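Sharing a chain and its predicted structure for anyone who wants a worked example. Both blocks are below, sequence first, C-alpha cells second.
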Amino acid sequence: MSDSGQTVDPGTETRPGTGMHQRSEMPTIVVGVDGSAPSILALRWAMALAPLFKASIRAVTCWQYQIAIGTFTPVIWNPEEEAQKICAEAVAQAFNGNLPPGLEMTVSQGPAAKVLVEASKTAQLVVVGSRGHGGFEGLLLGSVSTTVAEHAKCPVLIAHGTDLPAELVTAPGHASFEGGSRAGSSHALP
C-alpha cells in the first residue's frame, strides 16, 4: 500500500501532487536527494552512468513528520511541498538546466533509508552522497548511505568528494577507467 492508503502495483510510481501512477519501462538509477552538495554530486554521477546502464534517473526526496514534545506554536508547514522544492532545486543545480531524458522526481513520506532500500528492488543502481545535511531530520545521508549500502537489493554507489572524475566529465556515458598498476588496460563500467 502507498502512504495514502492506495494499493500500488510494483513497478508503478506515484507522481507527486497528481495521485497518478506511471509504469516505468526503462531500467532506473535511483538517487537519494536532500539538497546537500553530496546529493547533487550523486545526481551528476547518475547522469554520467545512465547511458552505460541504458537507464533513466529517478531523484528521490523523502520527508517525515517530526515529533515535538512540549509547548509550541503551530506553524503551517507542508513537508511534501518543501521536499518537492528541495528535489527540484537540487536537480536544477546538478544539471544546470540540461535535464537528462526520462528524469523522474519522486517525493516519498518515510525514512530515507527505508524508502531507498524499497526503491532498490526495481532499480539497476542506487546512488547516494556520502553525507547529507539535516534539511529534514532523517535525511542525513551519512547514516542513510550506510543503511542503503547494507540492505539494498541492487548495487549502490556512494558518491564521495566534490566533482566527477575527469573521464566522466569529458565523455559522459563513455567512461572507462585505467587500472592503477595495469597501465594500458581499461575496464568499462557495465
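Comments welcome. Residues 37-53 form the longest helix (17 residues).
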